What we know:
It is a single chain. The chain is of the alpha/beta class. It starts with a helix and ends in an 11-residue tail after the last helix. Helix content is 37%, strand content 21%. The strands form three sheets. An eight-stranded mixed beta sheet has the order 15-14-16-13-11-12-10-17, sandwiched between helices. The chain has a seven-stranded mixed barrel with strand order 1-8-6-5-4-9-19. It has a four-stranded mixed beta sheet with strand order 7-3-2-18, with no helix packed on it. The relative contact order is 0.16. The chain has helices at residues 2-30, 89-97, 121-124, 128-146, 161-175, 249-266, 290-297, 301-306, 334-350, 372-376, 410-429, 449-459, 474-486, 519-545, 547-554; strands at residues 33-42, 45-48, 51-55, 60-65, 78-83, 104-109, 149-150, 154-158, 186-191, 203-211, 225-231, 276-282, 307-313, 322-327, 353-358, 382-386, 488-496, 501-503, 508-516. Keywords: Endoplasmic reticulum, Glycoprotein, Membrane, Signal, Transmembrane, Transmembrane helix.
Amino acid sequence: xxxxxxxxxxxxxxxxxxxxxxxxxxxxxxxxxxxxxxxxxxxxxxxxxxxxxxxxxxxxxxxxxxxxxxxxxxxxxxxxxxxxxxxxxxxxxxxxxxxxxxxxxxxxxxxxxxxxxxxxxxxxxxxxxxxxxxxxxxxxxxxxxxxxxxxxxxxxxxxxxxxxxxxxxxxxxxxxxxxxxxxxxxxxxxxxxxxxxxxxxxxxxxxxxxxxxxxxxxxxxxxxxxxxxxxxxxxxxxxxxxxxxxxxxxxxxxxxxxxxxxxxxxxxxxxxxxxxxxxxxxxxxxxxxxxxxxxxxxxxxxxxxxxxxxxxxxxxxxxxxxxxxxxxxxxxxxxxxxxxxxxxxxxxxxxxxxxxxxxxxxxxxxxxxxxxxxxxxxxxxxxxxxxxxxxxxxxxxxxxxxxxxxxxxxxxxxxxxxxxxxxxxxxxxxxxxxxxxxxxxxxxxxxxxxxxxxxxxxxxxxxxxxxxxxxxxxxxxxxxxxxxxxxxxxxxxxxxxxxxxxxxxxxxxxxxxxxxxxxxxxxxxxxxxxxxxxxxxxxxxxxxxxxxxxxxxxxxxxxxxxxxx
Length: 565
């Protein structure tokens, strides 16, 4: 009796071992082979006055597709991969305008736009006309994406060998006319994690520094002030890539260099001017210059009234031979005429053309296109110097994908700095209309090109979206330290961004790309393995215990009758 139970127990152990083996094999079959893992950057998600815009989701778990899919195919479970150099902007507009169901979009950017890439060959393979074409395509793409409410994830990634190989396989599969599904097999794109959350009470930080002018003995009047201002933060289609080399990295670099140049003059009482110079690095530029508004509101009336004029620097690094001075007061205004004539005289000497654009402000309209308009609303004379001939739309020219180091002209920034510094210096020292070069080349007061280049490199590698910059962010602290090196009484002002703008987190993620076999193949393989295991099990039982034991496993046990008492 004990030997029978032992044989039965051995038989059950064999069955359990076989079942466990089957489960292990099934699990192995359904696992995917990881093809590659890449960094991806999510399309901005934000609200304006409660209206949802941008990409509203972050998680992905769909098959990969390409633009080679036949028309009419269901793409609700497909992530369409689109290299920028193959971009069909009309098709993207159709996807968004018609709200076609999509699993997601993945745009592949050229490596030359990757600020983390130190390979110089990534840029050299592009001709000048190719760079301009890429920039124009990106500008058009951003205009389509940033103002739309997109109900699926949209990501950006940089081209590399791994993802190019994946895309080539996807294209071959799509060219056959069969979309990627669970039954056909393909690549699967997975981004996991929580859903995005709004950033509560984001902080914006303004930094200011002074170069006090020289007062005459016994003079109790307050000296007039000239303000040089530049907004330093950015925002773009992909916040994690928003470095804004030109807008407004060029303005920041120019302000720091102008502060350095005048600090050399003001450090000596003999060459210190009878004007105070106020330098302001403001935040909240993309949000109607909200930081500038709050910075100016913090001034007392006496200080505001002492400002002779303010010059705001914005996007001065990608122009050929013409800059624009934008003003809110009429060109006939005596102060505006004085500013424009001073700049025009210096510009002519430098071989630069300067134009004047007047745009009257509407106090009832919350939209602020230029930084100087915040000064004008407080009746302070101000102007914006820029390469842009027309006011940008909201969140346009604020550091998008196309605004990278490769599209900035260092010579243009140097000439812009010379124009501003020389014009202000002649105003301060009363040299208007005189051909006197204060910041001449090959002197101790010459513009420092290596200094400009080093700061431009730093800014071109630093995304500066205000809601993601903390009060003690290393970049903010670096700006403060640099301004302290050239000016006095440097202080930092922290404010809360107006509630009109709401920004969401999760701007960067890891994309896992899996190569998956089709379900049909999985089922066929499982059937073959199952048949093999059953045959093997039958053979082992017959050879070790005999045919009768095998038959007894599948025989119904006899029913037991209960005897009546």
